[in-house]
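Re: that chain you flagged

S.,

Sorry for the slow reply, it's been a week of failed gels. I finally had a moment to sit down with the sequence you sent. For the record, here it is as I used it:
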Amino acid sequence: MIRVGIAGVGAAGRAFVPAILAHPAFALAAIADPSAAIRQEMQRAYQVPAHPDFAALLANGAIDAVCIATPTEMHAEQAIAALAAGKHVLLEKPMATTMADADAILAAARSAGKLLLVGHSHSYDAPIARMRQLVESGVVGAPCMANTWCYTDWVYRPRRPEELDVAKGGGVTFRQGAHQFDILRFLCGGLAQSVRAKTFDLDPARSTIGAHVAFVDFADGAAGTAVYSGYDHLPGALLTFGIGEWGFPQPAKAAPAARAVSPDEELREKAERARHAIPAQAPHPPFFGLTVLSCARGDIRQVPEGLAVHTRNGVTTIPVSSARSPRDVLLDELHEAIAGIRPPVHDGRWALASLELCLGASESARSGREVVLTRQVPLARPVGPIAA
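Prediction finished late last night. Pasting the structure tokens below so you have them in one place:
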């Protein structure tokens, strides 16, 4: 049994709790959060130790692995400390705010001989994994174009100040582009070679990078685009059959005005939203915007029941189960890696390559030039079957 401590019990940290409790290889052993109210809540609900800070969590001798779901600017220091303390590390995306910090995390994992896995990212979503399986099967031929578009209200959700601060890993290119670039690399095999992008800061009252468009060129000739807008103009559900990011029906709603609450009230709203932002189960597979994969012999798109494969012979619908969440699949990957069953896909080198794309897109937007990528890696192994 792998005993897990969770650092940071916001939306991301909370989302791992039901997955850990349901997985036969894992046990929730402790949490750490600076909020006394959250610590009390988690202690009552799960009867586990609740620590006020990360150092206290690491000092807990009853944990084997640490899930780090704290703000991005804390990732490097905390991941390095956890690895040095002999813990396996499951690190939320993006893994760091700079390549230097990412390299330092990788070096710490090598030195400690412990596993480093980075996620959740939406390439764990069952429809995206099934697309990659179809590529690996050869039935649709080699990928040519991968396009992923997502329209949300990201900018206007309750935020900590650092989530809007690009220097601290804030804004949609770091926090949502990390998902999109991971999807594109996953579908096309990993070896991106350059990126050209533009980013947009469209609301002076809520200043951040709130939208981007990026073109990614791959070494084998494939190309991908990532489009994201967090300004809540176009309802994203119009592109996804009325289904939202986590697989629930999502009715269209009017765009909100700029937020007019106090910073303290916004933090309270954020804490409340975290309690239900990411559900454990849903009636449909996740829909992180619209993703279309075009291959040599067909196009693949997501539909409510799974995937639709369009070829010259017509349209084939492939069911995709929603029984297991992306975090359930992530824990499978973590367990298999720790147990030596098979290597992880989303290891530190993979995550560093996705971070390089986030940073490259941001640099391209600043400079107006294409940015060449030098730290890309292929998928470590075929994706293989996903447990139902």
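What I noticed first: The first helix runs from residue 11 to 22.

Talk soon,
D.
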